[in-house]
Amino acid sequence: MIKPRTPPGVMELLPREQIAFQRMLDTIRETYESFGFLPVETPVFELSDVLLTKSGGETERQVYFVQSTGALEKKGEGLPELALRFDLTVPLARYVAEHEHALAFPFRRYQMQRVYRGERAQRGRFREFYQCDIDVIGKDVLNPRHDAEIPAVIHAVFERLAIGDFTIQFNHRKLLRGFFEGLGIVDERQDRVLRELDKLDKRGEAAVRETLTGDGFTLAGEVADKLLSFSRVRSAGHADALEKLAALGEGTTQFNEGRDALVATLEQLKAMGIPESRYAINLSIARGLDYYTGIVYETTLDAHPEIGSICSGGRYDNLASHYSKSRLPGVGISIGLTRLFWQLCEAGIIDVAASSVDVLVGLLSEDDFAEALALSQRLRGGGLKVETQMAPKKVARQFQYADRAGIRFVALRGEGERAAGTVTLKDLSSGEQQVVALDEATAWIDTRIKGEAS
Amino acid sequence: MIKPRTPPGVMELLPREQIAFQRMLDTIRETYESFGFLPVETPVFELSDVLLTKSGGETERQVYFVQSTGALEKKGEGLPELALRFDLTVPLARYVAEHEHALAFPFRRYQMQRVYRGERAQRGRFREFYQCDIDVIGKDVLNPRHDAEIPAVIHAVFERLAIGDFTIQFNHRKLLRGFFEGLGIVDERQDRVLRELDKLDKRGEAAVRETLTGDGFTLAGEVADKLLSFSRVRSAGHADALEKLAALGEGTTQFNEGRDALVATLEQLKAMGIPESRYAINLSIARGLDYYTGIVYETTLDAHPEIGSICSGGRYDNLASHYSKSRLPGVGISIGLTRLFWQLCEAGIIDVAASSVDVLVGLLSEDDFAEALALSQRLRGGGLKVETQMAPKKVARQFQYADRAGIRFVALRGEGERAAGTVTLKDLSSGEQQVVALDEATAWIDTRIKGEAS
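^ inputs. structure came back:
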C-alpha cells in the first residue's frame, strides 16, 4: 500500500472548490471571447532547444525537463529533448512564428493553460499554475488603439468575477525612459535606476533615495527627488489623470510620445464607458526590464493591496525575434489564476458553497424509480443539471444529502404526484416547497435560479 | 534563429480548429454536468512512486518522467521524482483515496485533461491527448443502477455532438466468465481465451478458431464453435436484445447474474427514453483483462466502423486497492477526444467553418471611432462576441476580412446612422443587410444566431 499524495507545490481542489475555480475560468474565457479573442492551446512540453532560446536566467533554472523511459535509460549527454512550458508567452511566440502564414493579423488569441516552474516550495507559491493570457499580435505594426482596449477587457473580467472593487493602473515605458533622458540618465543606467525604483514598495522611499544618491548611482539629491516625486504620481478619476499628465509638461520626444499615448488610452476608455473609478495612472509601475516597450498595466483589488497585482501586462516591440524574421509587435496581459484563487480563498472572498448540480431527483419508493429517471431526463432536457437518487431513502435523508452537497433543489414524484400529473419541488435555499404541474417544473426551478443570479 | 516547431506526436490546432475542438469539449462537459457529475482536475505530474504502483507493463514503458534542472544536474540513481499522468484513472484512484473523508459517496466526478504516453510516433497516434472521463465511485458498494445510467450519458453526449448515428454496445464480464465456466474453461484459461476472442475483429473467426483448437488451447471444436457463436450475438432493437438474452437460457450463477444485469440495464435505458436504435448488446466485447468485472461498454459510429470505439468503459470492483484499504467499486467511461477529433477531421465529419466571434464592428472613418467602441460595448453587453475594427478601411475590405475570418455579422455606424439612431447590420451567411434601430441591434443578430442553431 502506498500513501496517496500529491507532489509539493501543486494546488489540487475538492470538487466544490473546483466548481468555484471552474466558474472563474469560464467567466474569464467568456469575457476574452466577448472581445473577439480566439482560443489557442499548445502542448504542455516544447522541444528544449526551442523553449530555451534565451541565455539562462532565473526562469531557465526553474525549468522542468521531460524524458521518456527510453531516453532516461540511455542517459545521453546534453539537455533532455523536452521541457515543460514555464509561461504562455514563449509558446505563443513559437506558435505565431510557426503558423505565421495561416494566421490573420492583428492576431487576437487567448490561452488558458497550466505552466510549470520549479519554485522553492513555500505557502502560496505554486510549481503548477494556470495562466489566463490574451495578446494582440500585429505584423510589422500594431495600432496603439489595441493598447487601450486591453484595460477594457481587464475591466470586464473583474466586473464579472465580482471579487470586489479594483483599479487598473497604467504607466508608459516611453514616458519613464523619456523622463530619465530629461534628467541625463541614459543607456544601461536607465535599467539600473528602473530596477531600483521597482523596489519602492518593498524598501520605501528613504532607502531607495539613499541607494540612488549613494556610491553605485551617484545621482544628485535633486535628481533623486525628481525621480521619487515622478514615481509618486497617481490619479483619482479621469479629469485628474489628464491634469496630472498635462502637469508633467513637455519633455524629450520619447517622453511626449508616452504622455500622448496615455492620454489617448484614457480617452478611449471613456468612450468605451469604463467607469473612471476603475482606472488610474500610476507612474511608479515599471514591470520588468527588457520586455515591455510601451504601455504597462497592473491591476489591484482596492480592499486588498497586500495581494499585489492580479492582472499585469503591457506592450512589447517584437514577440518572436528568436523564431522569425518578421517583426511582430504585441500587447497582452496575464492573470495567474491559481495564485489569485488561493489568495482570494485566504482572504475569504471566494464562496465555495454551491454545487454545480441544480436538482436532486429523489426516490421514496422502488415503484417510483422509472418515473424518477423520466423526470430527471425531462429536467435535463430543460437545461438543468440533475442527479438522480438511485435507491429509495427517507425524504429527510434526501433533503439532508442535497443540503450537504450544496444542491439547491429537490424534486419528488411519488404515486400521488403521478396520479395528479404533478411534481413536488423544494428550494432548500428558501425552504419554499410547492406542488407544480409536471410541465412547469423546469420553469419553476429556472425562475428561481435566474432570480438568484440577477 | 531557431526553427519554431512542436515536438512529434502532439496535436496543435489553428484557431478555427481549436474553436471546433473547444465546442466539443464544452458539449461533453455540459452533458457530464447535466447528469450531476462534479469536476476534478489533478496535477499533470504525480510522484513516480505513487503513479507507478503496479508492476511494469506496456503502460509503464511509455511513461514520461519529469525532472527539475537541479535534479537533472545531480543525476541521482533510481527513478526521477515526478512522472506525467498516462491516464485519468490512476490519478482518480489516488485522488479518491487521498481525499476519501472529504468526499460524499457515491462520488460522481468528471475529469477532462490531457494525458501523456511515449507512443511510437505514427499518424493518428498522439503522445499528448485529451481524455474526457466520468466515473461513479461507491464506498463498499455501488448500486448497479449507476451502470445503466452511463449509457444514457454516452447517448446524450453523442446526440449533442451531432457527429452522426451511433450505437452504444455492451456486454457483461460475468456473462462472459459464466459462459466460459459452463464450457469448463476456468481460472487463468479464461483470461487467455478472452484475449484470443478480443482479436476476432483483427484476425477473423477462422484464425481465432484455429488458435483455440490448436496446441496452445486444445479446446474441442464444438467448444470453440460455441464460443464463436456466443461472440456473434448482437441485437437490433430493444425487444431483440431481450429475446437474445433470454435465448441464452440458464447457466452458472455468474452467468445468470450477468444476464439479469444486462436485462435491467436495457429496461432502465427504456425508462430514460433512450431510443432503442442507439443501444445494443454485443457479446464479443471483452475490453481488457484484469480491470473490468461487470458491464463493459463500447460506442461506434454507424457510418464509420473503421474508427473503432469512440467511448469505452465499464464496471470495476475496486478502484484504489494500491492506496486505500476501503473497497471502492466504480463504473466509468472515457472519450479520447484528441484522437476522435483527428479521426473526425480525416473522415470529413467536422466543420471548422465558423469563428467564435459573432460580430465585426467596422470602421469607415476616424470620426466614427468613439461610436464604434460604444457600439461594440453595447453588443457585448447583450452577450455577443465582438471584434472592433481599430483603423478605418473601405467597407468591401471589412466585409472581406469578416468573411475570411468566419465572422458572420458586420455592424457599421457612420454619420448617417448616428443621426438616425440606427445601425447597419449585415449577415454574411445570407447576404441580408438592414438598417435597424440601435436598441434592436442585439436582438436582430441574436434571432439569426438562434435561428441557425435550431
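The two ends of chain A are 50 Å apart (CA to CA). The first strand of chain A starts at residue 38 and ends at 39.
thumbs up if we can close this ticket
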